[in-house]
User: Which sequence fits this backbone?
DNA sequence: CGATCGTCAAGAGCAGTGCTCTCATTTATT
DNA sequence: AATAAATGAGAGCACTGCTCTTGACGATCG
């Protein structure tokens, strides 16, 4: 046999993918709440009950959309990072920041699905974790690369000392930023949350009627964040 | 007449408030998606159609819950700020940070309603704006107070210059931080988005399996943010 | 005082949802 | 060829938001 899949398995995989694609289009239009299994079935010309052969519940369909979304964002971030010279750490940081924002602007409902409030009655299963950290490892690698290269500016003298109780948490984060001391890990976390906090505020309307040139403000804010982390310009 | 309201108007206001209270309880249990007008009516022992006399649609009910939420958070922030000596700017900042986090932990679904992804098919009307900025003016006042008192540390020499295109946006933000120069406004925005970015990440599960002592990490992160703004310890 | 008009609760009903069950058909395996 | 597994379709249940109509209550005005 040329393919290790039977014809049945092939058409099943194809249909599963097509259902997810149709669902993603509906998600892009109506948002997570407007995603309807029946509507997907209608658009595909099949009975609503048939869709349940491929996705046992609406939440399962949402889960695959979430995983796909994390992977799409992660890939965008990876590509942005790879397009900048490896030792230009500040440039890499700025590139991934813009990649996140650009992806969010291009896929607002998917971004809301990933980083907004959990969908009503939906509990994220463990399956999403590997995809969810795909972009995170990129941020971590930039910081740890800069640290290993000795390119990180030291924090100013009056910086508050890291509390001892943070040691355990820092050790866990160090899996993504190998060899990085605790205070740098904190600064990385602050920049990370600052990036998504800013993008979320812009996406969810908190900046409405205030920041009318969000692209410029974002670029400058992330440049400041880079300095907070210690990435030299 | 002792009250300027007729008996009819009084019972109407009372019932409106009671419906909102029941809805808020359901919101706290099931989240925004689980909020059902019919369930509210059931719990109150009235017909579902009767509820529509008080709230013309589910979205209107959600809107009042959102406004109430903003006001509750705003009040918590105001109280936290007022409990700290007026010239202890860093202490005031830390107090409001913890007020936000504590309120979010105590009202997770309401927080998600305010700062999570917009509810499916729900478009926030203008009515929410005044309540939504109630906490924001507190942050702005802390920064502008510190600046007026000359208590703000200057940014380091290599800080990236504020782009000229940000001038218009800064002017709008200055309505909340009177007399504050552009670069300080930027630092205030970064701290503001960093605060809510951190709280949202904690509330929405992005820290799961990584930060197990979120209270300590939050306190330290916000202390670092204070230094970024220039608030002396 | 009695008629009127605005307000209100209730019920029926529509269109939509997620999901389950059964039944016939198609496909793959033995 | 016979059997077992997988698939699609339809009906149906319980639920949702929302509308419309009907009948009753209460305040106001002639």
Assistant:
């Amino acid at each position: 046999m040329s393919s290790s899949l039977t014809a049945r398995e092939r058409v099943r995989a194809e249909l599963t993918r097509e259902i997810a694609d149709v669902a993603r289009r509906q998600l892009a239009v109506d948002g997570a709440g407007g995603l309807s299994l029946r509507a997907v079935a209608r658009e595909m010309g099949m009975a609503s009950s048939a869709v349940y052969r491929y996705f046992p519940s609406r939440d399962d369909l949402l889960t695959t959309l979430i995983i796909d979304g994390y992977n799409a964002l992660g890939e965008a971030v990876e590509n942005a990072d790879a397009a900048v010279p490896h030792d230009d750490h500040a440039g890499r940081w700025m590139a991934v920041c813009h990649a996140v924002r650009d992806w969010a602007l291009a896929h607002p409902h998917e971004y809301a699905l990933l980083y907004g409030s959990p969908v009503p009655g939906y509990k994220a299963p463990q399956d999403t974790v590997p995809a969810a950290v795909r972009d995170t490892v990129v941020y971590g690698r930039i910081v740890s690369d800069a640290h290993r290269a000795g390119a990180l500016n030291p924090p100013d003298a009056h910086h508050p000392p890291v509390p001892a109780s943070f040691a355990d948490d820092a050790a866990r984060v160090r899996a993504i930023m190998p060899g990085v001391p605790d205070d740098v890990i904190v600064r990385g976390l602050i920049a990370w949350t600052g990036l998504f906090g800013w993008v979320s505020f812009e996406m969810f309307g908190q900046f409405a009627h205030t920041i009318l040139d969000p692209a410029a403000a974002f670029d400058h804010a992330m440049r400041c964040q880079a300095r907070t982390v210690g990435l030299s310009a």
